[in-house]
Amino acid sequence: MTEPSTPTAASAPLVILIGAAHVDRIARSHPPYRPQASNPGHLTERVGGAAFNAAMALQQFGTAAFLVSVRGGDAGGASVEAALADRGIGDGSLTWLDRATPTYTAILDDRGELVAGIADMALYDLMTPRVLSRKHLRLQLDAGAALLVDANLPAETLLDLAYARRSPVAAIGVSPGKVGRLAAALPRLAMLFVSRLEAAALAACEPDAEPRVFVQALTAAGLRRAVITDGPREAWIVEDGQIFAQAPPPVDAVRDVTGAGDTLAAVTLAECLNRASFRQAARTGMAAASLHIAAGLSPGCAETCRNLGADLAPLRPIA
How far apart are CA 76 and CA 148, in angstroms? Predict the structure, then answer.
């Protein structure tokens, strides 16, 4: 195992991200997808992962990012290292030279919607509290204005990070199978970002349950603020037990849905650090996620996202 590089100083607000940075393989069908059949399409490979995607979005909103992850001593690990360096993202990752870098393989239909995904991410289980207790990492964690974690980390690590930090801690649910790792940390999270299926798994509710059922269960477990998304349908913005429905901006053509939730989380957190209210920050985050799905975020997009978020239909309270 090799040690991480020394972080560089940044004048912008600094968010520490701990979680996934790996190789994404995205296969998209050209015709309408047919299950249990060979579908013509194309395959692309790029660096992704929840923490990496969020770090990319943070940069577009004037927020510095320092990422702590793990990777193997292989070509995938080299790709992740190069991508972080190219984008000026601080790299505090640890390398296991004898292990393979995690990968995520997604199958998309002809509209860009996710059909299936395979996550080969056992290496993230090595991100234990002991591994993250190294002095140079502790100093960097203490320097951040906020911490953003994802549920690829072990439950004990998420709990340790949530209770050990003085700065706000936000979390990304990642998947219905992993979101339960956040359960014990809920009372200490400043904000949570999950899909409807992830929220259902975390709350032990049926996915088609009413919003109030989800929120009552999660609030009882300590949840304070959350954005619960449901694809192109209304999202629920939760704050101190109140629920507001918010329709996202329409997306005429879907480029790629992978990373949209990570973008939402990063931008909402960045806007809160810029003193926006949580509800308005979430609206801006939803606008950024829609832009990511349609065309991808680009330099100078922050003001466009803020204006688009401000122009969304008013929040609709849910009794």
Answer: 23
